[in-house]
Amino acid sequence: MNALSSNKDLQLLNGNHAVAMGVKLANPHFAPLYPITPQTPILEKLIALQSAGELETELLTPESEHSAMASAIAASATGVRVFTATSSQGLLLMHELLHFAAGARTPIVMFNVNRTPASPWGFWPDQIDSLSQRDTGWVQLYSENPQESLDTVIQAFRIAEAAQMPVMVNHDAFYVSHAVEPVEVPAQETVDTFLPAYKAGLHLDPELGRSLGAPIDQKSWNESRQQMAAAMATVGDLTASAGQDWGDLTGRSYGPLEQYRTDGADVVFVTMGSMCGTVREAVDGLRARGIAAGLLKIRLFRPLPQVELRKALADVPCAIVLDRNYSPGVGGVVHQELKAALFDMANAPRLHGLLAGVGGVNVSAEMIERLAVEYRDAVASPDPVWVEE
Amino acid sequence: MDDMQRSTLWTDALSENRLTGTWRNETPDYRNLPSPCLGACPVSGRIADWIGKVEKKDYRGAWETLVDNNPFPAIAGRICHHPCETACNRAQLDETVSICALERFVGDTALSEGWAFPAPPANAPAQSVAIIGSGPAGLSAAYQLRRAGVGVTIYESQDQLGGLMRYGIPAYRLEKSILDGEIARIIDMGVTVKLNTEITGAAGLQELRVRHDAVYLATGASRPKPLPGVDYDQPWVQDSADFLAATNAGQDCTLGAHVLVIGGGSAAMDVARTARRLGRKVTVLALEPEAMLPAQRAEVIEATEEGIEFVTGAMMQSAEPGTDGLRIRCTRVDFKRGTTRGAFNITPVEDSEFTLTADAIIPSIGQDADLSRWQDLLAGDGPVLKADASWHTGLDGVFTGGDVASMDRFVTQAIGMGKEAARSILVYIAPDVGAADAPADDPEAGFSVINTAYHPLAERNKPQNADVTARLGNFKEVQQSLDQSQAMTEASRCFSCGTCTYCDNCYFYCPDMAITKLDGGGYEIKSDYCKGCGLCVAECPTGAIRMQEDL
């Protein structure tokens, strides 16, 4: 996994530019984009690539994110590959159409840069923008670093098109979006092998004379949700096989979950996004001090891989969720999701829900080590706990 | 997966599991509704229809639609008082459509192209109808009867056909070649014409009743109303009808240099402007204040432009020859309009006398129908002949219309009356041919049903008038034609109120695919699937669909 140690062609890219390179390789037919900090570098890079003649994608810059998603749905319904990107307020403006896109089964891939929603105004890494969209029917993946963002956006097209569900890939504002790291940009042939051109099934075409999403009766609407449930049920395996196939081609494998040094762990941190990198460092530090710590990284948040989560945490004495988000009145979203996933499990860990990094405040490796020591033997509170450095 | 989604998400066609029609409590009713211009039109012309054809450059089709109700589009396009334009919905957006000028464009195109009316049907009824008088009402009736194949004989007292259109309307408003062209087209359908044949008295009428299966009496109102206190035998007095008939026939005018025309109606304007063209100085004296003159506004404006002086709100009391012309004593009057058409009350204003000078006077205060000819045979109704709603006089088989039977004294009103009478006559003589469908009782398509988003603001193409200097000294037409490009852009301004233009908006906007296109034009709304959302109605640019509550 260490890009620096490979012999491949490495480029210094920030997370957003890495996404743009991944999009270029996936070669969508159409990408409507509306600028918003901190997503804008994705848009800028795609426009620059197109201006340089390196990107064939038709770009559209409509008057709002709502229109961007509307045009994405319409284009996708015609049977072409579609990409868009946004962040925070932009994602929230799309909300109505996120339901529509999922219900219409349009396999759009969207990159969302996690950022605090107003008010108060801010630009800081926080995942509540995308987590609050969890019930819209979008597959959600969270990326830890620029390389994973590039790799995941390509895999996302394969998952979306196979499941006929839209996929949202997320990475944290600035910590990933603007942080520059060496990134291996795979060859076009590699990506073409992994992701053949999209062949749509049912699609809009005047020649075919069919319409999409006409009013239906109650029973048919109900059935449409059962069909979405069936599609969602395939996403876990699709994510696993896409991550495995990608690994076979590039040496970088991925799955719905990732476990780091969890063998025999007394305490396992559960988190998503850029926080995982810091936890890895803390785990190494804790292990060096003789504390058996590990990391369970959730990469696929929707659909939540509940069976895999129960398996990964079975017989672990203590699990600590680090939520870089806050759902007012409840607590950390990942904490809530995990409590539900582990419900009624005999060998479940004591589960701590810590609100760490909400609003983008720094969570250092030292702080995480301290939290491990503080909470590994403590009685778990059902309520969320705010922690600070 | 595709198969599953097909049943929930994709609609290939109308499918059994989506009977959205069950949700409906209102249903779109797709049918053409009468436009306000149609309601106002004296001949009930399908204006939205024929303008739509002009827009599509189907001038022949436009003409055929026009002549369904009126065989004189080139004439009406010049002299109609065009109440259609007053009623036009477009006036509520920017400016009324120049319907009259468009009609002239189509009528002139038909004349220049030499289009003829089709031959009457071969299996025509054997009956024949006598028409007394060849003015607009008589010729209109002749045309409609001949179209149905009925034999028609016109009895005309003058030596040419046309009645008021020939003898009452000056050439600068209606060129004689236009009049001749549109009349000839009717006669060419096989109408028998008896010129210089005056039907006088009850005996003459009775003879026609014997010879024909029905009689249409349309002798007009050619008898000038005498102005009380004026000696018509004086050489400096000329009756307006005589004046117009003589000058329209090209005879010399013997009146002096300064003419006083008495009256404020259209005929008075025709007299005044004719005299002006013959080099006279002209003053118009009218009882009505300027704003209430009964002539069309444009006529008053054009007369003023031509240098005619107006003395309004005043009455002549006496005229006496003096050393240098007539001394005409006048007084100002307080004019009050009465409750019925043409009725009024005047009160002289005290101490307001004044004197005008002139060399001649032409009283032009209206014309009466000559009812005395039919005394003992036909009943009168005030100044006109009595007739029922079908224009039947009460004397079996004798119908009437035009100025002799109505105070609605406009050329196109007479044309409309002729058409109506022809229909009644057909029912009378050949019920199986003549019976027409009862008119539908549909509401008019008012401005509120027009989706103005589809009708951008556009300036009206007004017909232009010849320069004043070019008008005087000759009888060339004042009002000019629209050219083809003006006619096209003007036609495109028409909302087509209540008339489907087959734009497909309803078909495309229907969210339930409940509207299908029919072979041969038009649409069908499938009630099993229409959920009554009204989108088709909202997106109809012309108001040809409306929501009707399901009862």
Describe this protein with a few key phrases.
heterodimer; A: 389 residues; Rossmann fold; 2 domains; 13 helices; 40% helix; B: alpha/beta; Alpha-Beta Plaits; FAD/NAD(P)-binding domain; four-stranded parallel β-sheet; 22 strands; 31% helix; globular
Question: Biggest sheet of chain A, open or closed, and with what strands and sense?
Answer: 6 strands, mixed
Oligomer: heterodimer
Report the count of strand segments of chain A: 16
Enumerate the spans of chain B where pLDDT stays under 50 for 5 or more consecutive residues.
none
Overview of this structure, please?
By secondary structure, chain A is an alpha/beta fold. Chain A has two domains: 3-250, Thiamin diphosphate (ThDP)-binding fold, Pyr/PP domains (Rossmann fold), CATH 3.40.50.970; 257-386, Rossmann fold. In chain A, 40% of the residues lie in helices and 18% in strands. Chain A has 13 helices and 16 strands. A six-stranded mixed beta sheet of chain A has the order 10-12-11-14-15-16, sandwiched between helices. Chain A has a five-stranded mixed beta sheet with strand order 4-5-7-6-13, with helices on both faces. In chain A, helix 2 (40-51) links the parallel strand 2 and strand 3 (58-60). The two termini of chain A are 30 Å apart. Residues 1-5 of chain A have low confidence and may be disordered. By secondary structure, chain B is of the alpha/beta class. Chain B folds into four domains: 13-32 and 500-549, Alpha-Beta Plaits, CATH 3.30.70; 36-117 and 440-493, Fumarate Reductase Iron-sulfur Protein, Chain B, domain 2 (Orthogonal Bundle); 128-222 and 384-434, FAD/NAD(P)-binding domain; 226-368, FAD/NAD(P)-binding domain (3-Layer(bba) Sandwich), CATH 3.50.50. Chain B has 20 helices and 22 strands. In chain B, the strands form seven sheets. Chain B has a five-stranded parallel beta sheet, sandwiched between helices. Chain B has a four-stranded parallel beta sheet with strand order 10-9-8-15, with helices on one face. The longest helix of chain B has 19 residues, at 411-429. Chain B is globular, with a radius of gyration of 28 Å. The two termini of chain B are 42 Å apart. The mean pLDDT of chain B is 92. Chains A and B meet through strand 9 and helix 9 of A and helix 1 and strand 1 of B. Strand 9 (211-212) of chain A pairs antiparallel with strand 1 (10-11) of chain B.
